[in-house]
Specification:
The chain is α/β, with parallel strands linked by helices. It has two domains: 293 residues, TIM Barrel, CATH 3.20.20.70; 123 residues, no CATH class. It has 13 helices and 18 strands. Helix 6 links the parallel strand 7 and strand 8. The longest helix is centred in the first third of the chain and has 27 residues. 48% of the residues are buried.
């Protein structure tokens, strides 16, 4: 294994080891502060982060607004306070010289006011902003206003080119690094485009080299690229280190820091990681963002998969093969199914899936009465955590809606991620993980259920293992 030397990122000498920012309350001030204190770049999530009272106790998030718009404004206030609190915790642990970034999703609800609200109160605490899940054109301007660096997360050279030409070229001095997040291997939301096959992973070296070629063309040869997604052992990436074709390279670890003493996830979640096998991470399209995402194939995802399989197309009048009348809804208005789909629907109803719910795509899905009631309740309780939500049809525009029917094939991502991050059932909630998570059960470092500290993990990573 080559010696892992420090590199310069955003004007500071750091180990080329970056903690990935993981969603709601999963990368927090404690985990990121510990990572930063060890010489890498720590990243806490500012996506509806936890906040504390004056005694350091966790403050519960309870919404009182009667409308989505009212709850949306409450969410903004919660998110700003949480981001500020996590930045303070992280800085206390990292020390004055540690490098700390905060992570946001461009498609999260009210990302701009939340960014401004946190950065205004964390001057001197935060060194940079990492941002993906969308095309974050304005993140460069916002970072520059506060004289901190920005780290766009992209999954292709094409995406970075678009960001550079539209906005980033105006704020090039504040570009800390470009994060290439592999859309087939990373956990969480993935940037697979319509032109790419979700079932055919492409070579990350080639995709990163294309990003570097463009960066060299526009004078960014000194700016590092951070490889994210599928990174486990550095020995597997040894030919990337000191590679003139790729230029300065750092590596992001998102999944491995889940299993540390400082990681805030529940003990049940940590123990589950020891049991995963190759193939247990499921690349799916159930997220209300519309993006692909990678998560553990637990009962929660299996239920969503089964729900979509209990789906048939319908017509509002007899047309083509849609000839079988089917009474729909409380008023039993007739819609029309094909004979085969009518037989499927009858069978599902006999199994207890007696409630048919319309989707935005002229189909109906069949669920139990309990599931139907829960779906409708979750849609009513929407607080606008995304800029646009397929599940609830919320959008942060003047109308407050996407203009499409709410989609019962999806779920409330805010509710699920909040629940699992605060000791909720790991089998009945979304459990994000990268596709290398099965290596917890194979890597001898974790033998006999060993859970390292962040320092022990980083020391291990530096050996190449």
């Amino acid at each position: 294994m080559k010696i892992l030397n420090a590199i310069k990122i955003a004007g500071k000498e750091v180990l080329p080891l970056v903690e990935g920012g993981k969603g709601i309350s999963v990368s927090n001030g404690q985990s990121s502060g510990a990572w930063s204190a060890c010489g890498g770049i720590g990243t806490f999530s500012a996506v509806n982060a936890d906040s504390y009272d004056k005694d350091g106790n966790l403050l519960p998030i309870v919404y009182h607004g009667k409308t989505r718009r009212e709850r949306h404004h409450e969410l903004i206030d919660f998110a700003i306070k949480g981001g500020i609190d996590q930045a303070k915790v992280a800085r206390d642990m990292a020390g004055p010289n540690g490098v700390l970034n905060m992570n946001v999703l461009w498609e999260m609800g009210a990302v701009e006011p939340i960014l401004y609200g946190i950065l205004e109160k964390t001057k001197g605490l935060v060194n940079g902003v990492t941002c993906g899940a969308g095309m974050p054109y304005k993140v460069a301007q916002i970072a520059a206003e506060y004289k901190i660096h920005y780290y766009p997360i992209v999954s292709s050279a094409r995406a970075f080119k678009a960001l550079w030409k539209r906005s980033f070229h105006k704020f090039s001095e504040w570009l800390g690094a470009v994060v290439y997040e592999d859309p087939w291997r990373a956990g969480g939301h993935n940037g697979i485009s319509r032109a790419e096959d979700p079932h055919q992973p492409e070579d990350p070296y080639h995709r990163v080299r294309l990003i570097r070629e463009f960066m060299d063309e526009v004078g960014l040869n000194h700016v590092p690229i951070i490889m994210a997604g599928g990174v486990w052992h550095l020995k597997d990436w040894e030919d990337w280190i000191d590679n003139k074709e790729l230029g300065p390279i750092a590596f992001q670890f998102g999944t491995r820091p889940l299993l540390t003493k400082e990681s805030p996830i529940s003990d049940a979640w940590k123990q589950k990681l020891f049991t995963l096998k190759e193939g247990d991470i499921y690349l799916n399209r159930f997220s209300p963002t519309g993006f692909y995402s990678s998560a553990v194939r637990n009962d929660f995802l299996k239920d969503l998969q089964s729900r979509s399989e209990r789906q048939v197309a319908f017509a509002t009048e007899i047309v083509g093969d849609h000839i079988k009348p089917f009474p729909f809804g409380p008023r039993k208005r007739l819609i029309y199914l094909t004979t085969a789909d009518y037989n499927h629907a009858t069978e599902w109803m006999m199994q207890g899936y007696t409630e048919a719910m319309k989707t935005p795509d002229a189909t109906i899905v069949f669920v139990t009465p309990k599931e139907s009631a829960q779906i409708l309740e979750d849609q009513r309780d929407c607080m606008g955590c995304l800029s646009a939500c397929l599940f609830s049809n919320w959008a942060q525009n003047e109308a407050g809606t996407t203009g499409r029917k709410a989609d019962p094939r999806s779920f409330c991502i805010q509710k699920s991620l909040m629940d699992i991050a605060h000791d909720g059932d790991i089998n009945q909630n979304l459990m994000f993980a990268g596709h290398a998570a099965y290596k917890f059960s194979q890597d001898p470092f974790y033998q006999n259920g060993f859970i390292p500290t962040v320092k022990q993990l980083m020391d291990r990573i530096k050996t190449g293992l």
